[in-house]
Task: structure prediction
Amino acid sequence: MRLTDWGRLYGLNRISTWRMYNEGRLPPDLNVEKVGGILYVIVPEDKQLLTVGYARVSSSDRKHLLEGQSSRLWKYAGENGIVMDRVVEEVASGLNDRRKKLLSLLSDPDVGWLVVEHRDRLARFGVGMVDAMLRARGGGLIVVDETEVDADLVRDMTEIMTSFCARLYGGRSARNRARRALEAAGD
Result:
């Protein structure tokens, strides 16, 4: 790939990329060759990015649903010719941005592709950022079912309202106040 295309993957414009090359500020492990005045980044052929399925449920009382979610990911991969290396299962809220297993996957440079059943199984917010990061590695996000589930959106709003009310009024009555606020908004 051309050096300018590599720079574009990392949010750099053409001039900034050339300036980094001329000043010797490119990453040391980046293999750059000049052919006829054009700079190319040589990507090793043997580096194969891993494809990992990610299954998540929000609470331990839903843990029994992980097995079905994982099997649907394996089935989808098999039907679509995707060679999936493994499936990682996690019990955590989609609003939690400190999920150990997901963070471990995202920080592993060998993981290039993530397969999820729904976008909200990966995260409630910021899924586009995760996809952009994976694309910069040469991979991406594969979503089995792109449709959103209305019940999940309502549950998300309840969780957000509960969180805000807990900060404003204290944790004891936050759930009731959030429920009443949602009921009032629905009228």
Summary: The first helix runs from residue 3 to 9. The mean pLDDT is 82. The longest strand covers residues 50-57.
